[in-house]
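If your schedule permits, I should be very grateful for your opinion on a structural question. Please examine both parts with care and let me know of anything in them that strikes you as inconsistent. The record follows directly beneath this note:
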Amino acid sequence: MTASPVDYWEPLWASGRRYRQITDTETRLLAGHLGPGHGRPALDVGCGDGALARHLHHQLGYRTTGIDCAPSAVTVATDAGPNSSRQPRFQVMDFAADDLSELPDPAYAVITCRLVFRFITDKAVFLEKVRQLLVPGGTFWMVTELADRRADDDPLKSLGITTPDVELLTARWSTVTAVDLDRLACFALRP
């Protein structure tokens, strides 16, 4: 039996483990593909420490909600910023399993997902939920490692998504833009 996402992630976040930080190159790409938020709603799925949600909120001007299935990750994200009403909203939620009507907005101009897609069990259902939550003309911003960027004997190869995963990710969008970033790829996907 496979552990639930919260059973997997909660002990890692609670132990103090942290993950790959957002780079200046990533934030420039993000700004170029999303543009200014003007207070429109954004959702960061698998927000972890909240860095991407804070960037969307403060630097790009989106009204951002970050969600993560691990309560310890949400605590880290919440504690990382000053306590004020001008901060992103963070909440514990498993995007794949929980009731999405519990989100603060019915639809989003931007949905981001950084270094999470590899861990999604049912990727097709996940992508359908993203499509349902995007406003017309919205953008799904996905950052993921690609498995084929590592040698076959590299123990970290499993952190990347496979070619069939990329095909599933990029299918059924009217516009697909992909940008290489070392072992990562950034995708701007529009319905």
Notes: The chain is about 30% helix and 25% strand.
